[in-house]
Amino acid sequence: MPVNWWWVRIGDFPRVQLLIAYLIWLVVLGFLYKQPYAKPAAVLLAVGVCIQLYWIFPYLPVAPRQVQWATSKDPEVRIQFLTANVLQDNDDASALLNLVEQQSPDVVVLCEVNQRWVDDLSPLRSKFPYRVEHPLENKYGLAMYSKLEILSAEVRGIVKESIPSIDAMVKLRCGHPVRLFVVHPNPPRPGEDTTKRDAELVLVGREIRDQQSAIVLGDMNDVGWSRTTDLFQEVSRLLDPRKGRGLYPTFNANSRVWRYPLDHLFHSDDFRVVSLKTLSHIGSDHLPLSVVLSYEPDAQQEQSAPDLDAGDREDAQDAVEELKKPGALDQPPED
């Protein structure tokens, strides 16, 4: 919907749960078919099923894949990511450290790190010679640890200094530079609309759009099938490796039912995907996400990014213009 009210936009999240609930009720109505309300109720539920499927179908394994599987076996062109929201109040870093040891990623990207987390993660410094650490106590601190050379890095407040992003250039083992953008925008929640989140993703998308090789990742506080994420893809021309492979939900790690894909990685069309999976629990309310990409320039001829038409361009500009309204950057205190 073209509104940014939190109580409307949060409705983007539970589409899978609604779909399952509608299907269950359709089965129940099958046993109540003689009741006068059964037929109209079944019609309404069927419409609801179609609406939810419309949004989530691109992420089901039966849908076409937006990103192809890698064809190159060359380790020099591969880059492995481990990204996670550690949960600032989670005081046990050992699970994450053990997971990093097991997975041996090239780049580790972490959200919600404060100074205590940075201190607890100090063992990573010996294994990851390049790093960017920006701890904060407001649940928006970021950190990036890399085995690959970081050519440049800047911590930027795209919409607000207290909600930073990391804008970096990393060199693959083959020598090719790749721009990395780490983001963790505001979530929709009571008392706060989605203005900052929507605008930040559009602004990052505009910067990335003309970049030859680019990757945007982090806890985006949004599901892949929302209009905001869809618009981000159109503006940035980045691809989503989830599409056609599965939902890979990461939040809430403490619930088997209310779980959504909030942690993402998007990339330019000169990459193919080697693997994509969620990882084991680390004591956070988010599951870590592991993605391995392969830099294969010929992929640009075979996989295409979504287009940005005039209507999409207007929606993107509207999202940015919302930032100029009085109170748009106000933020309620963290719990």
Automatic annotation (TrEMBL):
GO CC, any one term: membrane
An MF annotation (GO) of this entry: exonuclease activity
GO BP term, example: GPI anchor biosynthetic process
Cross-referenced Gene3D superfamilies: Endonuclease/exonuclease/phosphatase (3.60.10.10)
Keyword Transmembrane: yes
Ranges of residues in domain Endonuclease/exonuclease/phosphatase: 82-286
SUPFAM superfamilies, alphabetized: DNase I-like (SSF56219)
Coiled coil stretches, renumbered: none
Keywords: Endonuclease, Exonuclease, Hydrolase, Membrane, Nuclease, Transmembrane, Transmembrane helix
Region described as Disordered: 297-335
Name used for this protein in its record: Endonuclease/Exonuclease/phosphatase family protein
